[in-house]
Design goal:
Length: 272
C-alpha cells in the first residue's frame, strides 16, 4: 500500500510531511511525498517559510505518480493559489481518495497559507476532496460564517458538501468542550459524531496533520471513509494520550502509541 502526502516540511518533525510519513508508516503504509514548502520550525513556533515553485511541485508529483501505484493522497499546507492549482492539475483525473486538510494557521499563530488563497482552496481543491478535515477556525474561514454551535457547524458542513466534498469532518479540538468530539457529515446525508475524552495537555503540535494522515493511510488500505475516520480517531487519541514530552513548547504527539498499544481507546459513536 502506498500513500502520497502533498504538504510542507516541519523541521521539528511533529507536523507536516514528517507527521504524515510517520503516521503512514505506523499504519503499515509506504509514504511518498511532494513538498510545497520548507519551514524552519520547532515546538515553539515557525521561524521561516520557503515555498517551492509550482513547477518544482509539479516535477515531484510527476515523479511520484508515474512510478508508484498510489492508493490515497492527502494535502496539508498548500501555501498559495499557484501551488493549489498545480496540485489540482495532477490529481483531478486520478481515481484515488483525496483527503484535504485545509491547513491555514499554525498553533503558534503563524500563517501557513496566503490569505487570498482561500478562494482557490474552496473552489479548486474542495470539489476534488473525498474527505475534508477543517478545524473550527478553518471551517469559519472557508464558509465566511462564525461557528459557535452544532447548528452553525451543520450549516457550514452543508455549505462545504455543496462544493462537491464527499465527507466533511468538523474537528472539535478547538471547541472548549469536556469531550473531544468530531462531527462527520456525509454527502449521503448521514451524520455521526465521534467522541473521546479531552486530554488536558499542551502536547498537541501536529494533531490535525496526524489525524488526516491516519484517515489517508486507512483509505490506502481500502477501508471505507467511515471506518477510516473511526480508526484515525483512535490513532490521534492515543497519540495525544501518551505524549513524548519533547521540545520546550507545544510538543508533538506520539506517533508510536497506536502500534505499540500503549493504551486502549474507546471511541463513542453517535448517529444523528
Ligand atoms: N486535547 C485533546 N484531547 C483529545 N483529542 C483531541 C485534543 N485536541 C484535539 N483532539 C483531536 O485531535 C484531532 C485533531 O483536531 P484539532 O482540532 O486539534 O485539529 P487541528 O486544529 O487542525 O490541528 P492542528 O492545529 O495540528 O492543525 C481531532 O480528532 C480532535 O478531536
Ligand atoms: C509544515 C506544517 N504543516 C502543518 C502545520 C500545522 O500544525 P499545527 O497547527 O499543529 O502547528 C505546521 N505547523 N507545519
Amino acid at each position: 500500500m502506498i500513500a502520497l502526502t502533498i504538504a510542507g516540511s516541519d523541521s521539528g518533525g511533529g507536523a507536516g510531511i514528517q507527521a504524515d510519513i510517520k503516521t503512514f508508516q505506523e499504519h503499515g503504509v509506504f509514504g511518498t511525498s511532494a513538498l510545497t514548502a520548507l519551514t524552519a520550525q520547532n515546538t515553539c513556533g515557525v521561524h521561516d517559510v520557503m515555498a517551492v515553485t509550482a513547477q518544482f511541485l509539479g516535477n515531484q508529483l510527476r515523479a511520484v505518480l508515474e512510478d508508484f501505484s498510489v492508493k490515497a493522497i492527502k494535502t496539508g499546507m498548500l501555501v498559495n493559489a499557484a501551488l493549489m492549482k498545480e496540485v489540482a492539475h495532477h490529481v483531478q483525473t486520478l481515481q484515488v481518495p483525496l483527503v484535504v486538510d485545509p491547513v491555514m494557521i499554525a498553533k503558534g499563530g503563524e500563517h501557513l497559507m496566503e490569505d487570498e488563497a482561500v478562494e482557490t482552496l474552496r473552489n479548486v481543491m474542495l470539489p476534488l476532496a473525498t474527505v475534508c478535515t477543517p478545524n473550527i477556525p478553518e471551517a469559519e474561514r472557508l464558509t465566511g460564517k462564525k461557528i459557535t454551535s452544532y447548528a452553525d457547524m451543520k450549516r457550514a458542513a452543508h455549505q462545504l458538501l455543496s462544493l462537491g466534498v464527499q465527507c466533511v469532518v468538523m474537528k472539535g479540538g478547538h471547541l472548549h468542550e469536556k469531550a473531544a468530539t468530531d462531527y462527520v457529515f456525509m454527502q449521503s446525508g448521514e451524520v455521526f459524531a465521534l467522541e473521546t475524552p479531552r486530554i488536558d495537555t499542551k502536547q498537541t503540535h501536529g494533531t490535525g496533520c496526524t489525524f488526516s494522515a491516519a484517515v489517508t493511510a486507512q483509505l490506502a488500505k481500502g477501508k471505507t471513509v467511515r471506518q477510516a475516520i473511526i480508526e484515525a480517531k483512535k490513532y490521534i487519541h492515543l497519540a495525544i494520550a501518551y505524549p513524548l514530552h519533547i521540545g520546550h513548547g507545544y510538543g508533538p504527539t506520539n506517533h508510536f502509541a497506536y502500534r505499540q498499544q500503549l493504551g486502549q481507546c474507546e471511541v463513542h459513536y453517535r448517529e444523528y
